[in-house]
């Protein structure tokens, strides 16, 4: 499928989530590797995202920012006939729920641990780890008896949540207390499009 998509941001940032989705959908896309430390230097990025943050998307003349919003958009626009298409309103609502959940419940404390792993921590690593216990239990319980978050196949919900939780690897977060989460995350990150 030929598209006029451009994704702004380096793969070592939240842009990785959008690049993963584009690969899953088989979308031709350009990548403008704006580094997160140099976003203010990119006039092209500023034209797409006035916040001057990555990632951002330009699809023809339509621009969008926020990584998980971009993924929800890509799935809805280009996912017809794939596992990324929500067959019902309820399915779509659950995909959105889990995507928002990842951002509100998991990303901030996990980012704190990730920064600490790179020597830029805030000294609150124990608090960040403790803050993850409840949401990871919720996810672990939800995965009882199911392989995927919503429905019976890998979906946008899995991609969006796994894209956030994948930070657990470089953050060296021990997931052994949540074995279903660890297994599910392993299945998600074993996908060729993740590794791409």
Question: How are the secondary structure elements laid out?
Answer:
Layout: E1 5-8, H1 15-24, E2 29-32, H2 43-48, E3 56-59, E4 62-65, H3 67-78, H4 89-117, H5 125-142, H6 156-165, H7 168-171, H8 179-189, H9 192-195
Parallel strand pairs: 1-2
Antiparallel strand pairs: 1-3, 3-4
Helix pairs in contact: 1-3, 1-6, 4-5, 4-6
Task: Explain how this protein is built.
About 55% of the residues lie in helices and about 10% in strands. By secondary structure, it is of the alpha+beta class. It folds into two domains: about 5-80, Glutaredoxin, CATH 3.40.30; about 90-195, Glutathione S-transferase Yfyf (Class Pi), Chain A, domain 2, CATH 1.20.1050. It has a four-stranded mixed sheet, covered by helices on one side. The longest helix has 29 residues, at about 90-115. The two termini are about 20 Å apart. The model has no long low-confidence stretch (mean pLDDT about 95).
Quick take:
The protein is of the alpha+beta class.
- Low-pLDDT parts are none
Our estimate of the beta-strand percent is 5-15%
Spell out the helices and strands N to C: EHEHEEHHHHHHH
Helical segment count: 9
Total individual domains:
2
Q: Based on DSSP secondary structure assignment, what is the total number of beta strands?
A: 4
Structural class per helix/strand content? alpha+beta
Mean pLDDT: 94
Report the helical percentage: 40-55%
- The neighbouring-strand order within the major sheet is 2-1-3-4
Largest sheet: 4 strands, mixed
CATH topology of the largest domain: Glutathione S-transferase Yfyf (Class Pi), Chain A, domain 2
CATH class of the largest domain: Mainly Alpha
Distance, first to last CA: 18 Å
CATH architecture label name of the largest domain: Up-down Bundle
Radius of gyration: 17 Å
From the spread of the alpha carbons, the general shape counts as globular
């Amino acid at each position: 499928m030929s598209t006029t998509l451009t994704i702004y941001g380096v793969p070592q940032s939240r842009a990785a989530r959008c690049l993963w989705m584009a690969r899953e959908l088989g979308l031709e896309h350009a990548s403008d590797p704006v580094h997160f430390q140099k976003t203010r230097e990119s006039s092209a990025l500023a034209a797409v995202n006035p916040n001057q943050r990555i990632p951002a998307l330009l699809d023809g003349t339509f621009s969008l920012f926020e990584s998980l919003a971009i993924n929800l958009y890509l799935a809805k626009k280009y996912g017809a006939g794939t596992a990324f298409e929500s067959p019902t309103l309820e399915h779509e609502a659950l995909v959105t729920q889990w995507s928002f959940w990842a951002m509100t419940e998991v990303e901030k404390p996990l980012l704190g641990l990730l920064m600490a792993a790179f020597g830029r921590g805030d000294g609150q690593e124990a608090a960040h780890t403790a803050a993850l216990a409840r949401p990871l239990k919720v996810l672990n319980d939800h995965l009882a008896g199911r392989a995927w978050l919503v429905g019976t196949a890998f979906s946008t919900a899995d991609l969006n949540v796994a894209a956030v939780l994948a930070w657990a690897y470089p953050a060296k977060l021990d997931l052994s207390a949540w074995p279903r989460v660890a297994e599910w995350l392993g299945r998600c990150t074993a996908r060729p499009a993740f590794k791409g």
